[in-house]
Design a protein that fits this description.
heterodimer; A: 318 residues; Rossmann fold; 2 domains; 7-stranded antiparallel beta sheet; globular; B: 94 residues; alpha+beta; 5-stranded antiparallel beta sheet
């Protein structure tokens, strides 16, 4: 059975996550979607605003996914997968709605690494909603909202009918230039823009950007890398960069796999196993690694990659 | 090692020190001298490849490559810097 795609909808309090999801679930394209809703309050309400059959919406109450109820998330996802395998639940996709206060990183770590569920799930998309009316003030005041936007594959600007979105859009572009910005008015949006397509296809841009303490840049290399260099590179980053490395994703030209690039994708120190494409997605055959970080230096990372490849090459030749 | 590659390794070492918030300098000296307020470490290239790390002429460690060398430097100069571990998620089941 092929892995079930799972997406995470995050965004600060009141930024429109539930409105977006409620609207999406009415779209026939997302009819077969199971939803896991995490609410922070004593009594959950958001799940009541989502219209779908009861067995496809699961509420996680009493704490935040990123700290208190992460185990519940994994357990719930596992139960959904078991029911699906038995034929008791019919869904093709899972969407997790986080609390507005959640740090998405530990949630993604749990979904990527848990022994029970990770092999049956495929992380499809991280979507962050940003409210155009209050978004700038929220980014100023709440570092968690900056992290939510920085880690996203797609940014959805909400309440664009209430406020001019241009300044916020530019700020978000500097914060996370790899994520396309979409607009949802009262939750209306084309689901195919959110859930389909590979997030790696957009890993192509050249300008380093800096905003809200988040630095984003793209490492490039025209010559292929040895596979072991890639492993050593990720190992060094995971060991020394800690939480300064927010996200890394890219296409890598690997010596041992000519014409079939590796897709790499990690959140902080946790990485998916590399996936191998059958061919390059476009005419650009160079390695491109997008790094979203808090204070990491692009030149250092590029030098590290090149120095590791120098060492590996020296071993290969002798 | 070519001067270009030596400069690149020096840049990697300097960048790592900044990352760990260690106040130290990296000098070229038939290898490298890393001078921190608390100690000076000498890093010498090992033939045919690899690195030797000395403190006060005492051999601390030998490493085949940069990952190990960086680990030793961090242990000596920034033992309290956060240390992570690479985790690769599960392979999708067939």
């Amino acid at each position: 059975m092929s892995p079930v795609p799972i997406s995470v909808v995050t965004g600060f309090l009141g930024s429109g996550k539930t409105t977006l999801l409620a609207r999406l679930l009415r779209d026939p394209a997302l009819a077969r979607t199971a939803v896991i809703v995490n609410e922070f309050g004593e009594v959950g309400l958001d799940h009541l605003l989502l219209e779908a059959s009861d067995e496809e919406i699961v509420l996680l109450e009493g704490g935040c996914l990123c700290c208190k109820v992460r185990g519940d998330l994994v357990r719930t996802a596992g139960e959904l997968l078991t029911r699906r395998a038995r034929g008791d639940a019919a869904f093709d996709r899972i969407v997790v709605e986080t609390t507005g206060l959640a740090d998405p990183a530990p949630i993604l770590h749990a979904l990527m690494t848990d022994r029970e569920v990770a092999g049956s799930l495929r992380l499809e998309s991280v979507i962050a909603t940003v409210d155009c009316a209050a978004g700038a003030a929220t980014l100023d005041a709440h570092p968690q909202s900056v992290k939510q936007a920085a880690l996203a594959d797609r940014l959805v600007l909400t309440k664009t009918d209430l406020a001019d979105s241009r300044a916020l859009a530019e700020r978000l572009r500097r914060l996370n230039p790899a994520a396309p910005q979409l607009t949802a008015v009262h939750g209306a949006i084309d689901p195919s823009l959110l859930f389909h397509g590979s997030p790696y296809e957009r890993s192509v841009y050249s300008d380093a950007t800096h905003a809200d303490g988040v630095t984003t840049f793209c490492l490039r290399r025209s010559e292929p890398l040895h596979a072991v260099t890639l492993t050593l590179f990720l190992q060094v980053l995971a060991e020394h960069c800690g939480e300064k490395l927010l996200r890394l994703k890219g296409l890598v030209d690997v010596v041992e796999s000519p014409g079939r690039p590796a897709v790499i994708h990690g959140v902080q120190h946790v990485f998916h196993p590399p996936a191998w494409l059958d061919a390059w997605p476009d005419g650009d055959r160079s390695t491109r690694i997008v790094v979203i970080s808090q204070g990491l230096d692009a030149g250092w990372m590029q030098d590290l990659l090149e120095a590791l490849e120098d060492e590996v090459k020296a071993c290969s030749i002798s | 090692m070519s001067s270009h590659k030596t400069a690149r390794v020096a840049s990697v070492l300097s960048g790592a020190l900044r990352l760990w918030e260690v106040s130290a300098t990296v000098e070229h000296a038939d290898g490298f001298l890393v001078r921190a307020p608390s100690m000076t470490l000498r890093i010498a290239p090992e033939v045919p490849r690899g690195w030797l790390v000395f403190r006060d002429d005492h051999l601390l460690a030998t490493h085949a490559g940069l990952p190990g060398l960086l680990r030793t430097l961090r242990q000596e100069l920034a033992p309290h810097a956060p240390r992570g571990r690479l985790i690769i998620g599960s392979q999708p089941r067939a």
